[in-house]
Amino acid sequence: MGKIMVVGLGSGDEESLSLGTFRRLKEAEHLWLRTGEHPVVPWLRGEGVRFTTFDPVYEKHPDFAGVYREITDTLLEEAGRGREVTYAVPGHPMVAETTVQLLLAEAGDHGIVLDIQGGGSFLDTAFARLAIDPNDGFLLLDGTVLDGDQLDPRCHLLISQVYDRMTASEVKLSLMEIYPDETLVTVATALGVAGEESITQVPLCELDREDRFTNLTSVYLPPVSSEAVLHRRLDTLTGIVARLRAPDGCPWDRQQTHESLRSYLLEEAYEFLEAVSQEDPDAMADELGDVLLQVLLHAQIGREEGSFDLGDVIQNLADKLIRRHPHVFGDAKLENATEVKQKWDEIKQWERSEEIGKAPSLLAGVPSEFPALLRAYKLQKKAAKAGFDWEDATGAKEKLLEEVEELFHAEEATQEAEMGDLLFSAVNLSRKFGVDPEQALLTSCRKFTRRFHHVEERARWFGKAVGEFPLDTLDSWWNEAKEKE
Questions:
Q1: What separation, in Å, do the N-terminal and C-terminal C-alpha atoms of the chain show?
Q2: Is-contact 95 123, C-beta < 8 A?
Q3: Is residue 131 assigned to a domain?
């Protein structure tokens, strides 16, 4: 049975290499080094240690994934021949070593014994040189695969494997998603290596402007308390909402319930739609914040009641999005947006039948709290999917005209009902033309407001109120506004 022993070369020169590790290297029959670019390697050569490095592999592949894959495959193949292979990596084998993680995952499947020994990690030196107390909160991340979602600016952040300017550029872009451009970052190279150690500070925006990187370079940022950074985080916002709801928080926020907040969610949603119609991105960001506040307030109330919390909201949404997108997260093949929408509705219908244990009404899922126009539109769309619909707009038009006649001949007691039928028919005609009646009416409301403001301005110019002018004058001003559009 083959065996792979993994040892760490430490983070510095021979002074940081343990005697036990040196003996293992000296006695190894088949010694491989992930790289010869390490401070201790020249000394090992001088001591007569014989080894092979994987440095040529780095030249063969365009990315590190390919390099690590070939290294792992080679080691498994060597050990698969019944040999005892020693594999030496920089630092500690369990710190920032992708090849070791691959060996851990795959050695057993190949019938190979994996024996991981220690080694001095560069973290020991980094903690001392950079004055890091990891107990305050510490993150070690790989610069070659850094993602902005991994970052937590409240912690000490050390980014390793910043090999070159290209990697530094990618790191800079990820960090600038969280930190201001002028944030000072520490570039630390060859920590603990006499004559090579370098610690410098540069503004984040200038991180990649100079060629100051080697395979021993890391980038460090201390914890921050800046509002400019922390106020962009969702957990900061949830903390603020929880504070508002605390016993010594805001009296208004404390007295709110799911019931009392109902109207605010609708109001904020409509204000966002107004910002969209005005194509105002600043207003959209602001109004979406107000919508998010309503979500967070409801989640905080649910948490206090013990019924649900924001984690439940997020999990339910994540599960739903994955479940309803089998063409993205599964094996389903959907060709266009129409097929996607159809599949979404099928899954949604199945989910509802599972919840209640039987097939629900085809009209299920349209909230009674929807505005009337929107609810009518949604109900009609659901009925249309079942085949209950006019073949074209002509049928809807004839029904609309029929309802107009019925309204004009209705007695006072039935006028409200007939007006409802007329509006319902108007929604049907809107749907046949592919027009959202809610948005169409909102557009008309904005248009009316804009034109009426012009009428008011003309009246003020004459120093009179609108009602003091005859209708034909007002109508002429109205047409003026209409012509300007």
A1: 84
A2: yes
A3: yes
Q: Are 460 and 467 in contact (CB under 8 A)?
A: no
* Domain termination site, one of 120, 148, 173: 120
Of residues 426 and 374, more confidence is placed in 426
Same domain, 415 and 455: no
Distances (CA, A) of 465 to 245, 445, 450, 452: 48, 22, 18, 13
Tell me what pLDDT residue 122 has: 85
Q: 133 and 92 in one domain?
A: no
Interatomic CA distance for residues 90 and 29, integer angstroms: 20
Range of the domain at 60: 3-120
Q: Secondary structure of the chain: what % helix, strand, coil (to 5)?
A: 55, 10, 35
Identify whether 466 is part of a domain: yes
The model carries a pTM of: 0.66
The residue whose two tokens read 């997108």 is 325
Can you tell me the distance from the alpha carbon of 140 to that of 134, in angstroms, rounded to the nearest whole number? 10
Residue 94 lies in a domain: yes
Q: What is the DSSP letter of 257?
A: -
Please, what's the b/e burial string for 447-457 (b: 16 or more CB within 10 A of its CB; e: otherwise)? eeeebeebbee
**Residue 322 counted as domain residue:** no
- pLDDT per position as a tens digit, 152-190: 999 999 999 898 999 999 999 999 999 999 999 999 998
How many folded domains does the chain comprise? 5
